[in-house]
Amino acid sequence: MGTLGGAGLAAAVAASRPRTLGMEGERRASQARSSGLPAGGADGDSPGGSAPFPGSSGSSALLQAEVLDLEEDEDDLEVFSKDASLMDMNSFSPMMPTSPLSMINQIKFEDEPDLKDLFITVDEPESHVTTIETFITYRIITKTSRGEFDSSEFEVRRRYQDFLWLKGKLEEAHPTLIIPPLPEKFIVKGMVERFNDDFIETRRKALHKFLNRIADHPTLTFNEDFKIFLTAQAWELSSHKKQGPGLLSRMGQTVRAVASSMRGVKNRPEEFMEMNNFIELFSQKINLIDKISQRIYKEEREYFDEMKEYGPIHILWSASEEDLVDTLKDVASCIDRCCKATEKRMSGLSEALLPVVHEYVLYSEMLMGVMKRRDQIQAELDSKVEALTYKKTDTDLLPEEIGKLEDKMECANNALKADWERWKQNMQNDIKLAFTDMAEENIHYYEQCLATWESFLTSQTNLHLEETSEDKP
Amino acid sequence: MGGYNRALSLSGSPGLAADQVLRRLTCLPTPGSVSSCSSWSPPGLPAGARRWRAEGRASQAETLVGRGRGGGGAGALGSPRRTAAMEQAPPDPERQLQPAPLEPLGCPDAGLGAAVGKEAAGAGEEDSGVDTMPHNNFWLKKIEISVSEAEKRTGRNAMNMQETYTAYLIETRSVEHTDGQSVLTDSLWRRYSEFELLRNYLLVYYPHIVVPPLPEKRAEFVWHKLSADNMDPDFVERRRIGLENFLLRIASHPILCRDKIFYLFLTQEGNWKETVNETGFQLKADSRLKALNATFRVKNPDKRFTDLKHYSDELQSVISHLLRVRARVADRLYGVYKVHGNYGRVFSEWSAIEKEMGDGLQSAGHHMDVYASSIDDILEDEEHYADQLKEYLFYAEALRAVCRKHELMQYDLEMAAQDLASKKQQCEELATGTVRTFSLKGMTTKLFGQETPEQREARIKVLEEQINEGEQQLKSKNLEGREFVKNAWADIERFKEQKNRDLKEALISYAVMQISMCKKGIQVWTNAKECFSKM
Q1: What is the interface pTM, i.e. ipTM, of the complex?
Q2: What are phi and psi for residue A106, nearest 5 degrees?
Q3: Minimal Cα–Cα distance from A114 to chain B, Å?
């Protein structure tokens, strides 16, 4: 805990640590639970298993952690420097977004030092060809200081199917928690080739975000399936997958779920009605914003394509004009520079805004599913209550069952409420950041163009000053 | 549409061009200002707002033809496209300061007319007195010409069918130097076809001059927003400006400005068409076929004209290309801006369900709307820039016309020389009795018997007369040709300088437009960013 705390402190100072947002809940949780000095920092460079941390204590209270911070300064510093390299995701993941903007996207500035103890990166997509199919796997590197992990560093390869499995398990275990969304299976419109580079890169980033959001979630981060996903070897994972309810039974569940959730809507408490309204409207709006943002990107791209042709024409023209050569060439170079600025603006948009908006589109679908599942539990409860009231069937066991269901309902509702607040807070921050970034990109773009044209004008003015002074006798 | 007052005079110096640019550069728009310092002033400004005259230069009696401009700047600047007319003789301040009464029509100043007539001699006009204007008083006064309004009209055309057309109001003002007031002297309505008639007339009577082109008849190089409809108000407005520009160019040309038909165009509404047609200029026009023939067959055209022809082809091709791409770029830019407007609507709807983010979203949405609507003005300004380039696109054709005339004259000369040479040879053969050249007469006499010595003498005499005549003609054709080349080249030099100034100015004004657009963009997005960060 100590070094990470120290690292956290230093990070707060450095203010540029890549980590995902919204960590209040789980930060406290991880503070309470993570243990001892991570040696992960020390041997951070060696992949695969390494010796368990020296001197790790079983548990440490918050106070103890802070005390450790203060006492072991030197160690902290040393480890911090190694941790710094850890935290600089770039060092082991060259495909991580390196632009400050996208990193800022992932920062939440908080008063308390960050105590994240689980770092995940997704990179290195690789294509695998078998006789039946071709698929892509992604490398997942996990670095952690948690005691429940056998080691401090793990490297595994996973394919999209595995992610789907993980999501399913999480939903099963926590039906009314807001599970982070996965990128879509495939995007129908405009997708020519399933394995087109842009598509893979976009997906990789989204998968990275997915895992990190889970890691940051106060409850989900301790999910067992999540741990297995991050650490198990390929064969371990497939054997683990085979356990648990089969596909058919799960399918049967969903059909029942849909039917019963309709009943659950009737008795939905007021606060959940409000929540549902919000979700519906939000979903509409975010979908529209997604469409608008994609369209803006498309228009900017087409503008860029035309601009590329515009500058060279002036160069062509300068070939036939003796007296205007310099002016025309200068205009051409200004146009080219503006062209580059527009390209940069486009890429900023696609890094900062589009993925965030799209994630929330997927989130809004996720939220509707959560609502349904809540309603389904409600429906189950209500039907049992009804049965008891009207003594339709054998009512001996009913009260007990109802009791259990009532507990379940209460838990589910509370979990959802808490998670909802957390989600809303995150959403606000993410959206605010994304749009602020977009505005910043545009300001920067116009500033660059302005500078280009102003310097052109100045050079023309200077030219004329020279000429007129030459004219004067 | 307000009137745009133009100051005009005959004198000026090329050195002012630099000044013009300098002063234009100092009138950059301030941040947040909506108007851009573009070449074209936005319509709707009061007539008085656009009075460009040579303040501070009156004593030198130098005025530049001004064109209303947005932004400050000294009075002497107007459109740097307006060349100060090049006077061959230095301006006489005295004459210009005195408001002199206009000479009545029909009293051509024979002396001056003859002098000017020499300029027009290249066109082969001997009776120049009719076509050139007594220029002593009228043109040395400062006058302002403006095409101030456009009106839709219906009337009956030649086939007695109803038609709709646009008429333009041309106002001419003479400016009193002493008190700076301007008095409306003439005001009449003309339609586009009359402008065309004027230009065709000028082309015939001044073939050695690069005659200013008219604005396009139909909208070309449009991007999607502009309609290609001739009745579209934006198109009509831009054409109005183009027609005014045309008149100003003629008025500031040292030679063309003196033309009487031009003067009548500005002053005599009724009967003008008949007057023009009475000059019989259509008959004097060279046939297209003849010109084409000459182009192919001429053996020794002046190299400078050949080069000029190539240049004008290149100019035309590159400007067309540029205008096409510019139109596409404009189209795309329009798309980018307008899509942002959708944000405004959605943000405002979304803000209804958000407690904390609501205000920020709402106000950010408003800024998105502002951003989206700002593109309309930006592109309208750019359209005027495109018009400036288009003028030179059409000038390329005027250049080619001069080259064609030269080729025609040269070809004519070559044919005359050839004809003379063959006649001389014939004569020689007859005299010496040797038959080296084929002639029908010679063949028939051979076949059917010798001709008598008397007959031969008669033929020699005829030939000698023809040879004499031919030599005279050749001499005068040579003279004409040289005069033409000299005068044409002088005008071409003038044109080149005008073109360089104007194009440079246009490119600079393009930069100014871009700067204004960037400043607007920075402002809007800074506001939006603030709203976003408050969410």
Answers
A1: 0.72
A2: -95, 5
A3: 23
